[in-house]
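Standup notes, structure subgroup. Blocker cleared on the 5-O-phosphono-beta-D-ribofuranosylamine input:
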Amino acid sequence: MHKLLFFASGSGSNFQSVIDSIEHGQLNASIVGLITDRADAGAIERAGKHSIMSYVVPPLPKDTFSEQLLKVLAPLEPDLIVLAGYLQKIPASVTETYRGRMINIHPSLLPKYGGKGCYGIHVHRAVIHNRESVSGCTVHFVNDHYDRGKIIAQKEVPVSADETPDTLARKVLEEEHKLLPKTIRQLLTNQLT
Ligand code: GRF
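Run returned:
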């Protein structure tokens, strides 16, 4: 069975969508761990409820950080690493070690609205400010440039005339919860065209 490992800093609703997908028999995989930079991340509680081990690796100077991450990751032998709302930059030595086996979910149609500082509500504010008529979410491979790895899958969401950043965030997140498990399933079963 394929082994998934998650990185998350926040509430972990995307992490939960994959847990649910596995529990409902829609995804044949196991989750071998959650890595977070925050001891108060909501994702930790979700992991605990499903007997998934959490590892808190606080942000450290670059070299020590990559050393710590690689030390936690190696024995877990993940087939696929999923960044789901993880706010630290992954050091290059880690993205290199897991090249082609590390993905991220982002709440915009990349390459638009990506890069440093473009996360969470900031993305949706910018989309509305620029009067876009469409937004959405993207799953992409991770390299050592923020949000610039190869795009794997996207889902569009229409932006209505009276949209607010909060309503758009909710609409996009709802699609993320479908796109992420679906894309993981396709990646693990080589079904991507
Ligand atoms: C999601 O919008 C995801 O695209 C982004 O961070 C958010 C995480 O939300 N990278 P959650 O913690 O999964 O609820």
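Discussed briefly. The radius of gyration is 16 Å.
Next: hand off to the docking folks.
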